[in-house]
Automatic annotation (TrEMBL):
GO terms for molecular function: hydrolase activity. It comes from Pedobacter gandavensis. Residues 34-341 form the Beta-lactamase-related domain. InterPro entries: AmpC-like, Beta-lactam-related, Beta-lactam/transpept-like. Keywords: Hydrolase, Signal. This is Serine hydrolase. Residues 1-26 form the signal peptide.
Length: 362
């Protein structure tokens, strides 16, 4: 009886001492994160954002700021669905590696193997497309983009739109962020798999990872908990510019929630889609023709925060901005979405990640 009572008392003492400390740390971290976010997202009556911090696959901070729809005066919630822009490239890159693991393509293949009439296609490899080193003209920098921005384009039409443009540099000579390369990758996914890109992503990634609130973007479909996108003018906010999502296609046309993006990150860690070796290809640094290393893998920037390696990527599309940072060594994932392209979550997300390293990454 005495031993049992002593054990009980020790347990109470442990809880009394430790629990308030842990609660205090959590409250302090939450308060500091709130302050970081509110430097940019301070207008509770305007469009805002959703931010999440997770460690070991579980959320430890998740909050929404501002409005999902100004006209209806609806607040954003942690489950709001945002357009994620170029974070789409992660899904495209992993899809390519899935097809490589199935033996249906090789990242060292020249694109002429699949598109025989592509100019200089024998010198441009899938690897070049994945790493933004192809030298292909980025369609977002073409003055004629406005002529197709609202048209329904097939992947082939998109490729034909930019393929005859002069190359910016020879393949492998330079790293220069490039949306055209990822549109080409989406087209190759369709050619090799026999499935439409939208269907491939849903079947082989979203459904497999349980990402039930993630979609190929549409302004016509009824999407539960949709966040509406905005621009800010001198006279106030306006609804986002309308585009056809067939234009950004596999370079920037997906939608998701912060919770679904955590499912994505967890699925990557658990090798749900790829073997360990194949997954490693996405997160490796590569070199240019001259041997110089650059900080991009396949669909992710490979960077660091205070010397600690990170995997990062952001996105920007009319009315929306996004940013995600993953710190593998401490399994911390930080993600931020904004439904006004006047508010960037990029630096805030990195600042939160740096704070998380200091406060909880031990």
């Amino acid at each position: 009886m005495k031993k049992t009572r002593l054990g009980f008392l020790l347990t109470i003492l442990f809880i009394t001492i430790c629990y308030p400390f842990n609660t205090a740390v959590a409250q302090s971290f939450e308060s500091k994160v709130d302050q970081l976010i509110q430097t940019e997202f301070s207008d509770s009556n305007g469009p805002g954002g959703v931010f999440m911090v997770a460690q070991y696959g579980k959320p430890i901070y998740r909050k929404a700021f501002g409005k999902a729809n100004l006209e209806l005066d609806n607040n954003l919630s942690p489950e709001s669905v945002f357009q994620i822009g170029s974070m789409t490239k992660q899904f495209t890159a992993i899809s390519v590696l899935m097809l490589e693991e199935q033996g249906k393509l090789n990242t060292n293949d020249p694109i002429s193997k699949y598109l025989p009439d592509y100019p200089k296609g024998d010198k441009i490899t899938i690897h070049h497309l994945l790493t933004h080193t192809s030298g292909i003209k980025d369609f977002t920098k073409m003055k004629s983009l406005s002529t197709i921005a609202q048209k329904e384009m097939t992947p082939k039409m998109m490729v034909d739109f930019f393929k005859d443009e002069p190359m910016d540099f020879d393949p492998g000579e330079k790293f220069e962020y490039n949306n055209s390369g990822y549109v080409l990758l989406g087209y190759l996914i369709e050619l090799v798999s026999g499935e439409q890109y939208e269907d491939f992503i849903k079947k082989h990634i979203f459904d497999k990872a349980g990402m039930n609130q993630s979609y190929y973007a549409s302004d016509r479909k009824i999407i539960n908990k949709r966040a509406y996108g905005y621009h800010r003018k001198e006279y106030g906010y306006v609804n986002k510019t309308m585009i056809s999502f067939s234009v950004p296609f596999s370079s920037g046309s997906l939608m998701s929630t912060v919770s679904d993006m955590l499912k994505w990150q967890n699925a990557l860690n658990q090798h749900l889609f790829l073997s360990t070796d194949k997954t490693r290809k996405a997160f490796s640094k590569y070199k240019l023709n001259n041997g110089e290393a650059f900080t991009y893998g396949y669909g992710w920037h490979i960077k660091d925060i205070n010397g600690i390696p990170t995997r990062e990527h952001g996105g920007s599309i009319f009315g929306f901005k996004s940013m995600g940072v993953y710190i593998p060594s401490v399994d911390i994932y930080v993600i931020g979405f904004s439904n006004c392209d006047c508010h960037s979550p990029t630096q805030i997300t990195r600042d939160i990640a740096a704070l998380a390293l200091t406060e909880i990454g031990k």
